[in-house]
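Milestone 3.1: sequence recovery, worked example.
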């Protein structure tokens, strides 16, 4: 069994950024911080504003303090420890929206999945193939129906814990962009570890999941691009490559789609839908994506591409044959 790490890149190809990047300079309109366990970059090419950027980074830190399951004093950690309680409306709302994604996907998306992630060793990256007993114990406390929300009151079934790894970063992106907008910024890009939210028109590169090059490029206006898959966290056992996205319904790590890219109107929906689409696949996820006005591209384990009908992109040469069109 072996574990390898590979850093994922999503190249931003806005023309205004090309010259400074080639010269090795850091333009004044671009700032980067480490928050929520990843790098965040804010780019405001038309109106550099240190005050607006600082306020946006402060908002991301505030949400990390609210939503982190790693910080013992966060509101989420306190809820997990208590098993029930009245929480702030912002937290209750995010839990309720997460449960709605679970309901839509029949459990493919699930914010109670943490015990399964731990059983596979993806939390601390001491990865392993879990024993049947370990899976049984983890699955016993996993399931979105074990969470009840009534107004701001939240109750968790015994042993159940929440974590927002598949939606929290997207929500924070949306909130940070709202802060920039409130400071008068009309064109911006925020990158949170490879997930992008843009205002204005930008061109984003999708990294090839198996080669050190760009798979293709897409141009979006006022929306978000999120890529999920096994480029960041995976391990191989008996010739099978498992990624860190776990199907809560079976307890098994995903193996079918090394790369799934979703384009959606909001970062929260792009974040959640990219995880959902990785686990559920094109046939099951297609109608859900359509309901959320989202589009997707799947790169499967055989190197074949499937897209939803509205996914518009430019493939790089030799990326693959013409993609099939999904539902």
């Amino acid at each position: 069994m072996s574990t390898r790490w590979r850093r994922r890149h999503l190249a931003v190809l806005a023309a205004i950024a090309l010259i400074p990047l080639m010269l090795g300079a850091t333009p004044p309109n671009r700032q980067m911080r480490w928050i929520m366990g990843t790098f965040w970059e804010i780019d405001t090419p038309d109106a550099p504003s240190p005050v607006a950027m600082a306020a946006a980074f402060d908002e991301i830190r505030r949400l990390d303090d609210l939503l982190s399951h790693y910080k013992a004093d966060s509101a989420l950690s306190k809820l997990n420890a208590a098993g029930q309680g009245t929480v702030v409306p912002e937290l209750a709302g995010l839990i309720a929206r997460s449960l709605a994604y679970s309901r839509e996907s029949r459990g493919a998306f699930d914010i109670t999945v943490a015990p399964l992630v731990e059983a596979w060793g993806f939390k601390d990256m001491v990865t392993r193939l879990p024993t049947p007993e370990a899976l049984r114990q983890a699955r016993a406390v996993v399931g979105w129906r074990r969470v009840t929300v009534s107004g701001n009151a939240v109750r968790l079934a015994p042993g159940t814990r929440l974590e927002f790894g598949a939606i929290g970063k997207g929500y924070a992106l949306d909130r940070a962009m709202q802060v920039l907008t409130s400071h008068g910024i009309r064109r911006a890009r925020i990158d949170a570890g490879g997930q992008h939210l843009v205002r204005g028109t930008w061109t984003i590169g999708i990294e090839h999941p198996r080669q050190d090059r760009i798979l293709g490029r897409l141009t979006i206006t006022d929306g978000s691009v999120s890529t999920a898959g096994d480029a960041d966290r995976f391990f191989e056992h008996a010739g099978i490559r498992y990624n860190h996205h776990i199907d809560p319904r079976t307890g098994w790590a995903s193996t079918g789609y090394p790369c799934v890219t979703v384009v959606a109107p909001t970062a929260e929906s792009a974040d959640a839908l990219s995880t959902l689409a990785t686990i559920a696949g094109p046939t099951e996820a297609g109608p859900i994506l359509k309901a959320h006005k989202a589009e997707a591209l799947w790169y499967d384990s055989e190197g074949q591409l499937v897209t939803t009908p509205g996914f518009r992109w430019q493939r790089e040469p030799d990326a693959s044959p013409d993609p099939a069109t999904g539902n």
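The chain has a mean pLDDT of 88. Helices lie at 15-23, 50-67, 75-82, 89-105, 114-119, 132-139, 168-182, 267-291.
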